[in-house]
Amino acid sequence: MILSLKKMILLCLIFLSFFNAKAIEITHGPYLQKAGTNDLAILWHTNKKGFSYIEYGENKLDLISKASIHGQFDANNSFHKIILTDLKPDTKYQYRVLTVDILKMAPYRVIYGDTIKSEIFSFTTQNKVFETFSFCTVNDIHGRSDVLDSLLKVGVKTNPDFYFFNGDMINDFTDENQLFNGFLDVSVKRFASEKPFVYVRGNHETRGSESRNLGAFLHFDDGKYYRAFTHKGVNFIILDSGEDKEDSNKYYYGLADFDSYRSEQEKWLQAYVKTSEYVNAKYRIVLLHMPFISQEFYDGEYVTPSHGIQDSQKKWAPHLKDIDLLVAAHTHEYSFLKVGEDNNQFPILINDDESIVKVEITPKGLKFVVTGTKGNIIDQKFIPKK
Ligand SMILES: [Fe+2]
């Protein structure tokens, strides 16, 4: 039977659309993020919308985890975040991420396509009791993924339990590709599918049209950029110092509200430092982007620090008397302030924009090593336990 011209064209279109349909792919990730003490968030992106889950387990992939929100499994999206909860302590797990292509999602008909699977990765959960461990921190990368790559190459050799990204990892946030090109993809290449990172917001991440969407690409417990967690008996507090200038600065166009945000954090901090998690910790370490300093080096001279630095120091420093170390960034200049050197009640380490810091936490104290992009050691110090 001879097909009509109309039918032939239709068949050709179906044939072409079948072969032109893009296969589903993982475009970014998976990357791990700390989520509480015994939980881990796993995030990835695909080129098409799908339905995602994780297969994981100790010796084989015999467990499945999906993200359930308001009674529905999360689906029909290209960004995937699943939090593994109630993980056993001090245990090595294998995992892989899977996304099923959703070809059609109608009210009464869902058509699934192919399933993409990542390779199998592993991660190890923390011991609940104190034992020697280390973490690494980098900051002020401002999208220079080549610099970050060199620093992470140094970092992975030290085998830390996790990493901090201490702010200004990208420049003013106007396009999601800045996250991938600026730091995420290179982190995945070096470590992030098997070791978590913890993100601390810097002042540059508060700027730009996408700045309110940062939380959509990363994991922040309870959706808050300021938070705390305990790792192997050591307590970590993360504060969000916000913008550096006054809220009334003309370049914020009436959209900044950081003074009240820093007061909100002060209120939280006041209550948090009374909790047993904080009080009973073996050590207490604070991470924030803008340091507590009395002078700032700007345009070749020392000047009074910006309003954001002064406001956070005034509101937060009095509640942090018992901490063992504060790790900051922002100045693009390395310095270490011993107790009392700048009227500070605790040691302050400020990392520059081209170094990685490894902090090792031992029963006798904190040892840190600051290393440059070529593996050159810039400084190392030991802070004895109080
Ligand atoms: Fe900064």
UniProtKB/TrEMBL annotation:
UniProt source species: Labilibaculum antarcticum
Protein name stated in the entry: Calcineurin-like phosphoesterase domain-containing protein
Keywords: Signal
Recorded GO MF terms: acid phosphatase activity; metal ion binding
Keyword Oxidoreductase assigned: no
Pfam families in alphabetical order: Metallophos (PF00149), Pur_ac_phosph_N (PF16656)
Every Purple acid phosphatase N-terminal domain range: 37-125
Domain Calcineurin-like phosphoesterase, chain residue ranges per copy: 137-334
Stretch forming the signal peptide: 1-23
